Each structure stands twice: as C-alpha cells, then as structure tokens.
Amino acid sequence: MNVKLRVLSIGVLFFAGHALNAQRANRDTATKTKEIQEVVLIGGIKLDPAQKVGAYNVVSKANFESTPFSSVDEVLNGRVAGLNFSSASGDPGSSNMVTIRGVSSLLGTPNPLYVIDGVIVGKGSDNASLMESWNPLSAIDPNAIENVSVLKDASATALYGSRGANGVILITTKKGKYNQKTRFEFSTETGTQDRAFDKMELMSSDEYIKYGGILMWNSQDLLGQTFSTLQEATDFFLSEPTYEGNYDGTTNTDWVKAVNRTSSVVNTYNFSASGGGENTSFRIGGTYYNNSPLIKTSNFDRISVNTAVDHKASDKLKFGVNLNYSNIKRQTYFGGRASANPVTSSIMISPLRPIYLENGDYNQDLGEGSPTPGFNPVSILDETSQKSTINTIIGSANMDYQFIKNFYFNSLYGMQAQFMTERQNVLAGHPVYTIMTDTQGFLGDFRTTIFDWNWSNTLGYRNIFNGRHNVQAFLGMEYQDHTYNNFQAITFTQNDPRPYFGFSDEQFASNTDQQWRQISYFGRLNYTLDSKYTISGQLRRDGNSTLGENKWGSFWSLGGSWNVMNESFMPDAFSSLTLRASYGVLGNIPYADQWYSQYNQYATLVYDSNIGWGPYGGNGFIASAGNRNLSWEESAHLDVGADFGILNERLKFTLDYYDKLTDKAIFRSYPAVETGGPTFFYDNVGAIRNRGFEVVVDAVPVRTENFSWNINANGSYGKSRIEKLNVDLVTFEGETSDGSNELVAFAPGKLFGEYYTWLWAGVAQTDDAANGISAGDGIWYTDGSRTTVTNDKTQAEKVWMGKNAFPTYNVGLTNSFDYKNFTLSFMLSGQFDFYVQNGVHSYTIHDGRFATRNQITDALYNSWTDAPGAENFSADNPKAVIGNPRSSRLESSRFLNKGDHIRLKEARIAYSFGDTFKDATGINNLTIYARGTNLLTYVFDKDLNYDPESTSNSWSALGKGRYWYASPVVRTVSFGIQIGF
C-alpha cells in the first residue's frame, strides 16, 4: 500500500548469457566475451559462462551510455527475452513496472529485485508521499553502469532467497583497470522529446459546437424541448447558461497545448577518469542529467558522482570500495484521478472556455460537471507546485582473502541511504483538497529517510583434482536491515504565498517509523567433470520479520549442464552445444519491499479523523485483523534450456522452457460478515503458475574486412494463470484510486488479472419494441453465449474475456551494420496477444454524461444520431443523451483494446574517427552519433489511441495495461559526442 496525500474527487543486443555490444569493434575475441558474461553473485560466487547452468542474460554498457532515459529499467525495455516493461508516466522519475517471466504473486509489486554492486536496493517500487510516483532507480546514473545481468531461473536466483522469486537484476558499475595509464572520457547528448504515440484527437470549438447541437437534439424529451432543425438545437446549446450560453463566439482554446510544452529537452553531460597501477585501480565519474518534460513547470535535474577503488594488498588479500551519490531536484504536478491533474483536465475542458478573463484573471468557470472553481489547469500549474529533493547514497565495501590454499573468505557490506524532501504549495483560490476554503492555501512538507544495509560473509573452497574434477563449495550468511522514517507537516490555512508554516493558522504533524529485517544462511556446491558435466546445488534458509510466528523457511535449487561440444562424437556442424536444466523451490514475501505492509502479522488499531489527532472528532477501529500464521510463499521453478551455435558461431541459438508454480500465495482471506471489524486479512490461500518459452538468435550474415551485418533477435511466450484461490471470485471495484481496477478479477483457473466485465454488443441498428430497445441504444450481451442483447446493463452478466494485460508474446529484433568507421543499428520490439484499457474512457467519450466537457472526435463523427443533416446510423458509438441514463460510458468490454503493437524502439547512426585522426591528435576515441528512441509505433487496433505500454502504477500488478491520466511515453531524437583521451 502506498500512503499518499491525494485530491479527493524488438530487439535485443545480446542473446542468453552472451552480451552483444552494438558498438564493439571486435566481435570474435573470446576473452572479451567471457569477461562480459561473467556474473558475480553474493560473496564472490560466480556464474561460470563456460559451464552455464542457470538462465540469465547480460546487457553491456554501450546500451546505458549517454542514454536519454532517466532510469536503468527503461533502458532494459526490449533488450531481454522474457522481460516485459510498462511505464506509469512519461514524466522522468516516475515508477515503472518490470516483469520477468510473468507475475508470481497476487499481492505487491511484480518487479524483480535490483542489486547494485552487491547492495540490495529493493524492487524499484514507488515510495513517494506527495509526488504522483517515484522510481528509486532514477537515482542511479546509467552512464556509470558496466553491465546488467538479468537472472531468471532458480539456479541463478536462489542465492537471493526470498527476494529473488520475481527474478534478479544485478547492476555492476564501472571500475578502473590495473596497469593502465589514466584515461579520461567525456560524452554529451542533447535531445528533444515529444509524444511517442498519441492518437487522442480532441474536438475543436467548431466540432464541439456541432456535437452540442446533436446532443441537444438527441435529448429533446429530457429537456422538455422540441426542435424543428439541428440549428435550433445548436442555438439552444449556445444560449442556455447551463450549457454554453456564455460563449463569446470566437474562443477556441487548445487546453492540451496550454499545459504542454511544444517539445521537451533532455541534456546529458558525462565525465570520468580511470586507470590503475600494479596494485591499485580507480575510477571516478560524474554526470549531469537535465530533462524539461512535456508538462509545463515540470523538471528533472540530476547530478551524480560515482567512484570505485580496488586494491591488491597482496596476492592473497584484495579489497574494494564502490560509492554512488546522486542529487535530484524534481518538480512534478498533481496526478492520478486528481481533478487538479493537468493531463486529465486538459482533455475534458470545453474549448469554448478561455484560459483568462478580460481582466486578466484566470477563468475558473469551466462548465457543468467541472470541479469547484480553482481548477483551471493553467492556473493550477502556475499557482501550485510539487517540488522534491532526493539525495541517494549507495555504497559497498568488499574484501576477498585467501587465508589457506584453495580457501577463500569474502565479506561485503552494502548500504543505501535515501533522503527525500517533498513539498507541495497550493495558493489560495485552488481548493484541491476538500477541507480547504477558497481564501486559504495549502502547504505540505514531507521528509522521508530510508536506510537499507546488508552484510554478507562467505567461506569458499575452489580446487581442481587430477585436471578433471573442478569443485567449488561455498558457505555463507547474510543480514539485512531496512528502516523507513517519514515525518509530515501540513496546513490547510495558509495565508501567504510564501511556503512557510509561520503564515498559517493551524498546522498538523504526524510521523511513521517502520522496520523489517532478514537473516539468511546459504550454501552452494558446484562440481564439473572433464569440463563436460556440471552439477550445481544450493541451499538457503531465510528468516524474515514480516511473517507470523514461523518466520523461517528453507529453500533450494539443483541444476546441471552438459557441454556436449567436448564429447568426441559431436558432429562438426556444431561449433557449440550446451544442454542444461534446473529445478528449485524459492521463498517469497510479496509485500516485504513495500512500506506500510511490514506488520501484516499483527492486529492494528487506527484512529480515524478528518484532520488529525487532538480535539477533533473521530473514531478508533481495527484496521487489520493480523495473522500470526502468515508463512512463506513457495515458488517451484523448472527450467530446461539449450545453447548451441553452428557455422563457426555465425549462427547461435538459446532456447528455454520454464514452468514456475507459486504455492501458498498470500492474498485476502475473508472472515464471516457477522464477525464485524476488517473485511479481510492476509493469509496463504492461492497458487499461480507461469509457463513459457524463450528463444534468442544471434546471426552474422555478412562479415568482411570492411563490412559486417549482425542480427540479434528474441522471442518469448508466457502466461500466468491462477491455479488455486480460497474464493470463487475476487473483483476490484471502487477500492482505492490506484489499487482498484473495475475490469479485472481473480478466480481459480483464470489468467492472472483476466478481464471480467460486461460484454459490449455495439449499437442497436433498429428498434426492438419487444425488448424495449431503440435504434441508437448502446447494448450489451446478456451473457457469454452472445445470443441475447439488452440495453439495460443491470440485466447483463459479466463475462470472462480470456485475455489479460500481460502480453503472451514478446519479440525483438536488432540489426547492426558496420562499414569502416560507420555504424548503423536499429531495434524493433513487439508485444502481442493482450488487451489494454483506457482509464479515462468515461471522460474521453462519455455519451452525453457531461454536456459541457470536451471529448475525442469520435464522439462527433462516430456516434449514432438522427439529427437532420448529421444523420449517422452505422456508428460504433451509441446515441448521446444528456446524463447518459443507460450508463454506456461506464466499464465494459467496449473500452478494451488490443494492445498488439510493433515499435521502432531505437535507431542509431554513428561515425568514429579512425587511427590517422587518433595518431594526429592523441585522442583515442572520438565518436559522433544521432539516436532516436520510440521513434515509430504501429498498433493493430484502429481504435487504440493511447500508448499500449502504459500502466497506472508499479506497486500492484492490477495497474498493468491501464492508461491512467499520465504524461505519455515520449519519443526522443538526440545528438551526441563521445571523446576519450
């Protein structure tokens, strides 16, 4: 649960286990390939690429350098087989949703665990108090990243125990190299951004007036009026004060343009120095990233500094330190379903209403159905502010000591500290909170401190016997501690525009302190015979404070691989072939990484009041019944895969099949109604199964001295299904603004989050007196048989749609062409077989519910009417009638769209100056390039007018696939330069 103050109203650049750098010059150097493949887990434990057992991918640094994106997870979008990405907003710093091989829990964020240089930093879930959302991963500078490893199966993720069930993303930052003279690198990129995909065309003033006349004509009976011509109906619309009687005859306001910049600008500057001597290596780097997003007054400004020092004290003792610091200044705006959200209001407000009155004041008369005066979106942007400062420190210190031959001890301490200040200032005249008056403003100041640390110690043994038996054994323990402290002060009685509480009449303060801990013991044993046969087993025992009386669980995995290439019978057609399989059972606690959910085991009491504590009336009640029997979710993972190459590795394949069953899934358990108190508590009541396939192909069709063509492609198939649940049906209607989703439900045997709603049958073409249906009525099928229709929604049953918001198929295709010093690459991504929904559908086409709100042009051109001169009897939308008495605008399958799409995710052209230039100048690298991201999007559903990669939040899988009043995903065109000397 996120506690926030709210308004009340395709392609990859790698294949599995093999990172492919689109800019690298030498693609055949095996040592380099092995270097970027190597994945370091806890306590110095490594995944050996030569004896690959688990399923994992590595994404190289070239994909993160000088990127226009503000966070790491955005860069991964489209570059990993089985990884699906969606964004809550195009506003930089907003939270994102990332799933790896589907959704494994009924609660909490489906995001994977992120680990940076051994520091466990959580799952990137939103932890903001006032901001619409906040993505903690935005604090990490992508330019500082050496590579990112995406771990998928039990063998790869088991060492992360309870926090790795959704997959693990390991981020390794850049370091210096021993025995290398100091190198300096500088890069900069400047780009412009606009909407990547937005076909939501709103009516102009002329179209809006035509629609108003048609609406009046259609509503004559309700109005008690009789019109002989459409012009009479239009004149009535423009003369009645209830409607648009105050229209001045000339105004044509483009409210979307009024609140948006024509284009946003993003700038990145990066500088680093690295090198090393015989015993010490170092790197220090800094980046400045600034983005002025689409919504006016919004801004994202980040300064980052990162350092790494490694030292060899002796042949047996090594240690190192990594430190990353960032300072972010961010200005955002009201979001979600807030009436003060400029994205929402700019869509709805009549184009006949001016922004300003003749005297220069803001026009606050925004029409019937509009909020209280004070919600002019331009005035909201000008006279309210949401400013945040986030300081983040992520650091780790590690030591590796060989105290006896073949015996090693590794210790790593990591910490993350985040200090967040969020301040919201609302001037008088904008009563965005229901408790406010028109004459006083609001001031809120929220201070959050989050401190996480983990300490792991590992004892390792590595030896090779008789040149045949390679044995690696590890034993270790890990301790994690996580604290959250939030202090907030607010006032609704601000008397001065200056943001100081001294100018207010009353102030209210509160605080929240939370903590949870985990202690773990783990072991891993690897055995390889003759470099052919590998067995890897691991065992982990975790104890977690957020569970009930039984806080401990034991989890394990077992995997094996066969390097068939080392067999004498291997055909010459193959240049590589490895078969592998793994199985394991991992623990999971779906809510542990999200604050305000750490105490589900306890019964909790809450004092409820409109304002706060003290003399104000309220009542106490049991907020949660608690459950002392809460125990671990258990996820059983099966992975079977193969990696092989032919034609001297000119054509490579990676294939994976996975089957993951999460049992004892935590979800709501419903007590008997007569017991009173809370309506539910959390218990281990469900099971979810994820099954799928992944295939990755790397091909080199052409390779000559001056020209090469590389193709990298991936595809995945996967579905998440609820196998078991304690009740027959769970719906999510009208709960909390972000946690509700009227169109989806949970039920045994159904897809996770499958759409369950009324089945729209379209528009009645003729009168059906026997059933009370008139031509132009919106109609629904009465049930799933689709044999009978009704215009009374209450007489229809909800129907399972057989689809959810998670794509069944994800594909990607990257082509890279190198000719001498020129490089051209482009990446296509595609997602297929899923539905998305428009969370603003009841406003963008409301069938007459709000007579003075604007809509999309379909409301005019594609709605049934018999108005003379505007007749339309073959429309897709029903007859618009004032008030929409049959509620056709509300939820049904009418507002579901196929999300299938193909996107030109990235295109890049670069020129690197050659050796002659380098010799003459002493510069060892000079590259200039142009790049575009999200350049083109093709959708297969002609009615889809919003971005198909949308999600409403990152902390609940229920938000997936829902466009939710957010700044859209952006398209970027940028130019950059890289210099090294």
UniProtKB/TrEMBL annotation:
Keywords: Cell outer membrane, Membrane, Signal, TonB box, Transmembrane, Transmembrane beta strand, Transport. Its main location: membrane. Residues 54-168 form the TonB-dependent receptor plug domain. Pfam families: Plug, TonB_dep_Rec_b-barrel. It is a multi-pass membrane protein. Residues 1-24 form the signal peptide. The keyword Membrane applies. Residues 375-826 form the TonB-dependent receptor-like beta-barrel domain. The keyword Protein transport does not apply. It is found in: Cell outer membrane. Belongs to the TonB-dependent receptor family. This is SusC/RagA family TonB-linked outer membrane protein.
